[in-house]
Amino acid sequence: QPQAIIFDLDGVLTDTSEYHYQAWKHLADDEGIPFTHEENDAHLRGVGRRDSLMYLIRGRQYSEEQIQEMMNRKNQYYNELIKKMSPGEVVPGGQALLEEIRKAGIKTAIASASKNADIVLDRLKITSLFDGIADGYSVVNGKPAADIFVYAAGLVHVPTHNCLGVEDADAGIEAIKNAGMRALAIGPSERFKRPDKVIPTLANVRLQTLLEV
Ligand code: BG6
Ligand code: MG
Fold first, then answer.
1. What does the CA dihedral 141, 113, 18, 13 come to, rounded to 10 degrees?
2. One of 10, 135, 147, 170 is an active-site residue; which one?
3. Could you give the C-alpha distances from 127 to 72, 75, 108, 180, in angstroms and in order?
4. 141-196 pLDDT, tens per residue?
5. If you measure from the C-alpha of residue 167 to the centroid of ligand 2, how many angstroms do you get, rounded to a whole number?
6. Is the dihedral of CA 148, 153, 159, 161 positive or negative?
7. Proportion of the chain in helix, strand, coil states, percent, rounded to 5
8. How far apart are CA 151 and CA 137, in angstroms?
9. Residues 55-65, mean pLDDT to the nearest whole number
């Protein structure tokens, strides 16, 4: 049994992927760049802020100053959207699952690439259900690098090989496997290259399912 379960936040514990999409779409519309929901799913899910923008503006010329301004503008749009989030936006059964994990004596942690993870966790009122929180300020190398999962394991003092990672993006599953952890993927199985187990959603999942990974 794992000694720690490390969760990605966006797209796993809550559907902020939709808000990230809406914020990028707003920016794309401002700039007259075509951008669809399908592209978001295929190319931006779990991808960091700068890399997401690089995908959006590919082939177009922008200065570093303009790039910075666009990243800030997208983040402002995103912040407007997450400001209104509430505990009802935690995946159904999410709080119960986290409580069940903790009662079983297993540590819980967050490994999110987002610099807004603290705000989202606060809006969802689940901050206190985690023993450690690693976010977009914690490490330099983003997923698929192992760093953020290794950092999160360190926060809860559990060796990486005793951790289970949970992710909805393939770059995240790669990060988990690169960290030497078991990997539970959330989403359609075609999305992932080397998960240990795939389930369509974390909704109403109990600890037993996580222990079977
Ligand atoms: C990830 C999201 O968790 O964080 C991505 O899945 C997002 O969509 C990335 O781009 C960075 O987030 P932020 O909030 O720092 O721009
Ligand atoms: Mg995610």
1. 140
2. 10
3. 25, 21, 11, 26
4. 999 999 999 999 999 999 999 999 999 999 999 999 999 999 999 999 999 999 99
5. 6
6. negative
7. 50, 15, 40
8. 11
9. 95
Distance (Å, rounded) from C-alpha 195 to C-alpha 187? 11
Exposed, middle or buried, 199 (CB in 10 Å: 0-12/13-18/19+)? middle
DSSP per-residue string spanning 142-156: PTTSSHHHHHHHHHT
Q: How far is the CA of 70 from the centre of ligand 1 (A)?
A: 15
Distance, in Å, from the CA atom of 109 to the CA atom of 130, rounded to the nearest integer, reads: 5
Both structure tokens of 162 = 């005793």
**Which residue, by CA, sits nearest to atom 12 of ligand 1?**
114
CA distances from 99 to 50, 93, 105, 155 (A): 35, 10, 10, 19
pTM for the complete prediction? Answer: 0.96
Q: Taking the CA of residue 59 as centre, how many other CA atoms within 13 Å lie in the half-sphere pointing to its CB?
A: 3
Atom of ligand 1 nearest to the CA of 169: 6
Residue with tokens 């100053």: 65
Which residue in the block uniquely carries the two structure tokens 């808000």?
19
pLDDT in tens, 85-115: 999 999 999 999 999 999 999 999 999 999 9
Q: Please state the ipTM of this predicted complex.
A: 0.99
* Structure tokens belonging to residue 157: 């003092």
Does 10 qualify as catalytic in the annotation? Answer: yes
Nearest Cα to 180, choosing from 149, 138, 142? 149
